[in-house]
Write a structure and sequence with these properties.
The complex is a heterodimer of chains A (494) and B (508). Chain A has helices spanning 9-12, 18-36, 42-61, 78-95, 110-127, 132-151, 156-187, 192-201, 207-225, 233-240, 243-269, 274-296, 301-322, 325-351, 372-375, 377-391, 397-411, 415-441, 458-472, 474-491; strands at residues 68-69, 74-75. By secondary structure, chain A is an all-alpha fold. Chain B is mostly helical. A two-stranded antiparallel sheet of chain B has the order 1-2. In chain B, helix 1 (4-19) runs antiparallel to helix 4 (104-123). The chains are: A mainly alpha (494), B mainly alpha (508). The A-B interface holds A 373, 388, 393-395, 399-400, 403-404, 406-407, 410-411, 415, 418-419, 422-423, 425-426, 429-430, 433, 436-437, 440-441, 475, 478-479, 482-483, 486 and B 64-68, 106, 128, 131-132, 135-136, 138-139, 142-143, 146-147, 153-154, 157-158, 161-162, 165-166, 169-170, 172-173, 176-177, 179-180, 183.
Chain lengths: 494, 508
Amino acid sequence: MVEQITVNLADLNIPSLLPMMVAIVGALVILCIDLVTKDLHKSFYLMLTILVLIIDLGTIIGYTGATRGFFDVMLVDGIAILTQIIILVSSALFILLTLSHQRFHEYRYPEYFALFLFMVAGFQFMVASDNLILIFVGLETASMALYTLIAMHNRSKSTEAAIKYFTMGAVAAGFIAFGSMIFYALTGSIELGQISASLVASDFANYPLVLLGVVFILGGLGFKLSLVPFHTWVPDVYEGSSAALAGYMSIVPKIATFVVALRFFEIFVSVDNQWIEMILYIVVILTMTIPNMAALVQTDVKRMLAYSSVAHAGFVMGAILVGTTQATEGLFFYWVLFSFTNLGAFTMLWINRSKDKHGYATDHPFEKFSGLVKRSPAGAIIMGLFLLSLAGVPPFGLFWGKMFLLGAAVNAGYIILAIIMALNSAIAAYYYLKLIVYMFLKEPNPSDETLLMKNANSTLYTLVGVTVLLTLASVLFIDPLLDMISMYVQISGY
Amino acid sequence: MEHILSILIFFPAFAVFLGFLVDKGAIRTYGITVTAIEFFISCYLWISFDNTNPGMQFTEFIPLISQYGISYNLGIDGISLFLVLMTTFMTMISLIGLTEKRDLKNLVLTILFLEMTMVGVFLALDAIIFYVFWELSLVPMLYIVGAWGGQRRIYAAIKFFLYTFTGSLVMLIGMLYLGYVYFQATGNWSFSLLDWNMLMLPIDMQMWLFVAFFLGFAIKVPMVPFHTWLPYAHGQAPTIGSVILAAILLKMGTYGFIRFSLPLFPDASVTLMIPMAILAIIAIIYTAMVAYAQEDIKQVIAYSSVSHMGVIILGIFALNVEGIGGSLFLMISHGIVSGALFMLVGVIYDRRHTKMMSEFGGLAKVMPMYATVFGIMLMASVGLPLTIGFVGEFLSLLGFFAVSPMLTGLAGLTIILGAVYMLVLYKKTFFGPITNPINEKLQDLKGRELAALIPLVLLVVYLGIHPKPILEPVDNSVKQLVQVMYLKSVEPTSKATIASVNSIGETK
């Protein structure tokens, strides 16, 4: 005899679903428009996408409903709201990069923009839930769309990248499913809150199984977050995709997954589970160190930035390990600043994108930037600014994030971790300097004149200008930013 | 002039932005004018400075990141006053003597930017703001060495950057930890040095923090064994880079010791007095010997810099008014003298494009004025009485004599060894017959070079005879510093040591 279920529409809390619905409906509208009229310029779809993202953002900021919704699978707490704001703002900024000077194949398809919106909706589902199944669905929605976006760049390397990403992503998805299954078997629930409660109540009975589940989930999330040893796809995929999309991949999918990781590992970190903390500790240290070493020997700027973004992810993962409120605030703070700086750096790469590679093996070899300061002083100074910010040289944006995270680690007693973080920053400085050395200290290569600043137009310049301003004057808006982040983090109790 | 310190810091920065619009042909004059105005502002600051007040003056305070207690906090006292004056003065002189032709505009603007960061380091009272300027100064220096340097300039520039960057990151962790300790003690976040000075720390914590700060400062000074970046940087840097590096950037490290390490960690400073002195003495003797073995004139002066920085460290860790005051005076005098020496090497390098001693000989006959100026600077570098070098060296050694006469005796070798390598250098280059016929037609010092060097000669002689204008304000602030150390030390033995080393000239 099945118990009768009565559903009250008011209890469903439909507004909690509204933001994702906006993105999905927007995507469908784009597809419908494409059915009716052909050959609309990309700028139309681009602006439509941005408008949808703005409406989406409005529904999130204006959200005043209950935390729980839709059969309790939605969880719209402070962190969910904050992360969605970050996701939407950076998505809107990154999609602007499609308005470049040169024409690229993929932007001719309206599907590109529809897929983009589906992807955003997927990420929003990921962060606004603590139900492992919904997280899984959101993750897969977003990933499927992302694989396709990469492949649409339509170069042999892009297809390679997409297939590589897809196959490894499929394994990772399997890992997450398997891990969720183990936790369901252990606790009879797929909601993180209840998993936590019953694990703590049973004092982590069946510990080997718990560990196995954690390892599976860590493997799955680690793939998305590019944690060592699941990071090997990153440089190839970044190299294969356009600089615009590579920059996007280094920011948005990661912050979404960070939130999932935060919600998941909080279960164990908050009760000081020794073994799992040790696993995390090792992963964090490896993720900071190994990509840093690899980045030292890269010959292509995009691959270097790919490794550097892996190292940054390790840095932020350290915040999840530390687990204090200050560290969680630091995580978001760091990521906001990182997204501006990385947006700037990848935009600069995008501006220097040319269709003709001029005999170089890759799109952005270091040699291409030789003597940029003599060709385009402003371009070199701006790129140098972003690199210094990534290296953590004060007073540029990312330094404050780094300082805040280091401070959080120190305050929680993780002095060794803080020192390893600091030493890694010093190693990282070397490869960022390498590009600065090429740009400022070497003589320009006369035949490369045609390669530089070829993809620029006023939209990209404006975008760069905004990011430069944010990176330079970061010290002025840190206070309000921190206030906002700590408000959202504290109401959700992390 | 409410905000004179902010003006002092940001005037060169604004000049950089406007400088982008100045035409290439006028950029040299623009640079000199800006630095001259900056120097006059700092002179005005000196005039309005109250010599009798040992505390911080002209303080400014604006909260920046209130949640984390970081504020824009500036102030000046007798310890930093003359370092600021020297910074503005030497930057001006180095631009006057600038003979570089390549990419002049970029070079001048970089120097102005560097000036901002250097002045900022000496004026910041908030640890994080201090750190910001401290790290920011690496960037222009990297560019100067890397773009206008010699053959292996890129290696030298990156080595310089990474070495100092690594050390400072460890120091940053120390600062963050200290901020946290302050938070635990008081319930408020603060990175202000004046707030931190109220903290009484247990000795083992002091030791760890001392080590963290030590790494940042010692690499900058540089102290043996962290000195290996310096000869490279000097060897490859263009003349103006060497002048600023030796005259000002190195002083940031020793200033850091006085400003942070001594008052914040008095017990650790007392405990580590002898180890620090031994490191300093190794620097003094070892690098003096290395200097003797060099073939390249610039390397001799580079190593002599390390050697003299050893004397400064020794004076600081005498922990008494004489030692610290003397080391501060020595910082000023070393800034002037080594700056002048590097400029003199630049003069000969411009004419011959070599710095090897073996290429020269008998220069005194063809370049009498050059030989005279070089001779005066050399005497000052060696520490001849009645030159500027003597006062600081004597006071530093006198200060440490109260700690350990034996170690002071060893350190006193600096004068002898310094005389050995310097006089050998002078003999090989200036005396004897002219061995190389190319040297017979060398031109003596002319216009621009004289304009840069003569003020330095005058200062060397004037301050050597009459050091009082500097010593008096320094003395007041240093007395207060020692007082703070005495009050803040938690171990009775440290209190006793500080009291006993500060008894020079008292009747028993």
